[in-house]
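Researcher: Here's the sequence for the chain we discussed earlier.
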Amino acid sequence: MKALHRAPLLALLALTSCGIPATGVVEAGGPASGALPLTPVYFVEDGRLVAMQRNTGRPGDPTDALRLLWDGPLAGEGGTGRLDVLTTELPALPTAMALPSAATDVPGSPLSDSSGAAGSSASDTPTVTVAGNTMTIRLPAGMAGLSDLGRRQLVCTATAAYLLTRPGTAAPAAEVTGGGHLVRMSDARCPAR
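Model: Thanks. This is the structure I predict for it:
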């Protein structure tokens, strides 16, 4: 009988002496599940920008985020679940301008930021570069004349993607160039992510 009374005490001692210190939650690294962070991609709903969360294999890559933006809204995405709720102010890319679906990691090439994320260097695709505190979004020829809302879609999407893996970093000023036009913007007019 004495052995039965000692069993709970021995079990308690075994659990408390396993060498694991009693601490609170320790924040370290990404999610334990291995899930990648979702990238905000900005579409238009009732004349205003809204962020839709998209899965990407390259979190923090503004070029990949722009690819998702040019893919357009998904069926049933938006406030009421109708296909026509979300739209875009961006023109469709001609087949020759199709964005690459997987970028290679070549530091210093177009579509590259200062962290070394990179992609295609073709002049017929939108390119994103970050130097210092300026993000440049270069549009291919024939893409001039975007509306203010369309330019904001580009800036908000690229900036949100860039900041995704750089917490605590100030948002870079954005320049949208192409077709002989230069527009400087900030993400101050972007809705919350």
